[in-house]
C-alpha cells in the first residue's frame, strides 16, 4: 500500500548489432520517401528482382531481404508500409519471421502479404495464425499481386487515420479544453473505478476539492481572458503538486478543481492540500477585488474514507463538499478536513 509521507509538521548514434547474414548499407539506411515503402523478403533472387521491378513500376519504394532474420533487421531500420514475405526460406522461414514481427512495437499496423507455393488449408490457416494479413500463391499472378498490395496499404492507411481520430475523440471526451486537466466526466468515471478498487483492497481514498476565492469578482475586474489564464495557472499548479501516476486532477466545474488520491489517508491528503494552497499563493496573481488577499487564493475541502462494497463514491464527494462549504463560511483562503464522513 502506497501512502504520501507526511512530515510531523504539515506545512545520436545508435549502434547496430551484428547480423546473421550480411546486409548492404543501402538496405538498412532509413529511406526518405513519399511513396509507400515495401519490404520484399524472399530467398530466391530472381523472384526478388521481379517483384522489385513490378512494384517500382507501380510507384512504390522497395527494399529487399533474402532471409527471415535479415527481414527482421531491415524492418527495424526502415519501418515499411507493407511486407511481402516468402513462406519458405532457409534459417528462419516466413512463418517464424511473421510470428517474431508481431512482437515489434507498431507492427500491428504493418500488413504482411505471405507468398507461398503451398495452397493447402493447413498452410493457409497457419499463415493467418502467425499474423499474415493475406496470402498469394506461386507462381505469382502479377495482376492479383498489384491489387492485393494496393488494398492492404490502403486499409492500413485508413486504420491509422481512424485510430488517430479515435485518440483525438478520446482526448476531447476526457480532457477539459481550457485547463488541459481531466474533465468532470473523466473525474466521475475514475472515482467510481478507484472507489471499487479501494473497496476490494480495503485501502483508503481521499478527495480534495479546491475553489478559487471570489473568482466572479476576478472575472468582473480583469475580464474573461484573464480569468481563463488564471484558471490555467491554478490547474497547472495543482497538477504539479500531485506526483503519483494514480492520482487524478480534474476540473470539477467552473472555478472548482478536484484531486482524487487513491491509497491515501487524510493526513497525506492534508499535506497535498497545504502544498497546493501554498503554491497558488506563491504565484502572486493579483486580485484587487478579493476580500481575503491581494492575490488569488483557494478554499479547500478534504475528505478521506475506506470504501466498502456497500458504500458509494458519492459519500466521499459529499463529505469533501461539506468541508469546502465550511472553508468558505470561515472566511475562505483556508482548508477544512471533513470529520463527519
From TrEMBL:
Pfam families linked to this entry: GGDEF, Response_reg
All copies of domain GGDEF, residue ranges: 203-340
Coiled-coil region: none
Gene3D superfamilies: 3.30.70.270, 3.40.50.2300
Domain of life the protein comes from: Bacteria
Lineage of producing organism: Bacteria, Bacillati, Cyanobacteriota, Cyanophyceae, Coleofasciculales
Keyword Cell inner membrane carried by entry: no
Residues modified as 4-aspartylphosphate: 86
Biological processes per GO annotation: cell adhesion involved in single-species biofilm formation; negative regulation of bacterial-type flagellum-dependent cell motility; phosphorelay signal transduction system
Record keywords, A-Z: Phosphoprotein
GO cellular component, one term: plasma membrane
Protein name per its UniProtKB record: Diguanylate cyclase (GGDEF) domain-containing protein
Domain Response regulatory, chain residue ranges per copy: 37-153
Phosphoprotein found in the keyword field: yes
GO MF term set: diguanylate cyclase activity
